[in-house]
């Protein structure tokens, strides 16, 4: 037997060799070696391809490659054979399937170097910009401040003999006589007053009862004039006169500027008839017309720069005091009121003005995460950007649905869907989308409309101050997580108690959407938090911790990370009876709360949520029509 054959035989298990060796002769050994060599050769033949195997596999692949015919104008038309487009009648053009075209997913496209050069693609990194700002320009008109409007009325009926203020725009002071009228009623009452006054003088030496009657008549005459509207100082003057007056003075109790004169000389007026309208023009209102798309860029107390044609090159400053809660159904605009200081009287009601509202400063003062305005392709209230990714050793471009805020000049702030440092296509995105559409991928044109459920529709935009209200809730949850990882039941129960108390302190009184979303999340948090608090052992606490972790993940998806440090979502496939479960923790080192010391490092980190960012929707969500995006996007 050859030495090679003997070596192969010796590789058999030792126990089998020791049993076989005494019972076989030389011929038997030769036969056994031949059988073993044949077996080894057969195994090797099965595992190694034939010399022409690659060629046959290539032929099979090329024969199975499917050619699809589509229309260059209507890429949704896809047929297995040539012909004409049923919509426009153009000849169909061939296109291979997505797999053969180099696209590794329905939302990803790989271009050759020549195609990239022809498309003139440019990419930029997603960055935070402190100088990202926008200017919202609105048109409006200057009006009088309604809170200073006053109306001067006739306090008695009669005929207007004279108007002392005849010009609209004239300023008047409080107590100034603005009109004189003849009132038969005042004349008669004044005459009765004078008669009663004389009667009191004549009855000075009469009996007490006569003096009291005369005094009562005088008091009645005075009260009648008071009821007619004669002020006390005017009444005292009227008592000193010898004859009843025919001219009744109408005085203004207010100071201001006459903006409307409603009376004319010789006209008869009744009690309460408006004579003049006054306004204090030291402050004015600028009523701006804001379209629906502009309303998101305006907030109360925003500073506004105002320019009027009458004073070119000169600006006036004001603040937004009111935003109309309704939209005019005819003009589709809402009124935005700006209060202007007009102490110098240079501005006048009726002027047209252009206002510039500076937008872009985040409500929490943080620099916003932005992308160029040329990067997104809008599908309505949602948008798609193309993100540069690695596909093996090639560069690919992935279509990703993102949530953007109101435009800030040349940028859009990112609410959700992108992380800082990722590169997006800023030039050539439409060419990529058209190519992806022709290949049958999930392009902008094939995305669901805004009535369908979107990837980031659950995300609630909050300021840092509002989002910070959720910080104690998440911190209490992390205390529960760390305690269970350390097999510390009392610590977990104490953390659950803190969590329940923190839930009760959260409110979003200025956001109905946030209030509604928080009502859903807080209900589950409280229920599972009480489960952990009332647990009698670690197993019971961990059972409640599973549901608690799901609610915290929902919180991160809907409100974002409220802490100043990143949070990590870890997953252990062995948890919950090998069904797998996730949890949220600090740091990237696995700290398994489901097993504690027995398997504390079992699991892997699946997502990281930076401060102010949202957790990505689950990959199996029905809303995720496109490839799942990593957590990212700063909240504004």
Primary descriptors:
25% strand; 32% helix; OB fold (Dihydrolipoamide Acetyltransferase, E2P); disordered C terminus; 6-stranded antiparallel β-barrel; 16 helices; alpha+beta; 636 residues; single chain; 7-stranded antiparallel sheet
How would you describe this structure to a colleague?
Among the domains are: 3-47; 147-279, RNA polymerase II/Efflux pump adaptor protein, barrel-sandwich hybrid domain (OB fold (Dihydrolipoamide Acetyltransferase, E2P)), CATH 2.40.50.100; 464-609, no CATH class. The protein is elongated. It is an alpha+beta fold. Strand 1 and strand 2 (78-79) form a beta hairpin. It is built from 16 helices and 29 strands.
Topology summary:
Elements lengths: L2 H8 L3 H7 L5 H22 L5 H12 L2 E4 L7 E2 L13 E4 L11 E3 L2 H7 L2 E4 L1 E2 L5 E11 L5 E4 L4 E6 L7 E2 L4 E6 L1 H19 L5 H21 L3 H8 L8 E4 L4 E6 L6 E2 L4 E6 L3 E9 H4 L7 E6 L6 E9 L9 E9 L10 E8 L9 E4 L4 E2 L4 E9 L2 E11 L6 E6 L6 E5 L1 H10 L25 H5 L2 H15 L3 H16 L7 H22 L4 H22 L7 E6 L2 H4 L2 E5 L18 E6 L27
| Helix vs. strand class | alpha+beta
Shape: elongated
Mean pLDDT: 79
Rounded to the nearest angstrom, the radius of gyration is 43 Å
Q: How much beta, percentage-wise?
A: 25-35%
Strand count = 29
Alpha-carbon distance between the two ends: 83 Å
Query: Which percent bin holds the helix content?
Result: 25-40%
Give the helix tally: 16
Give unreliable regions as ranges: 9-13, 29-65, 96-104, 360-365, 620-636
The biggest beta sheet reads: 7 strands, antiparallel
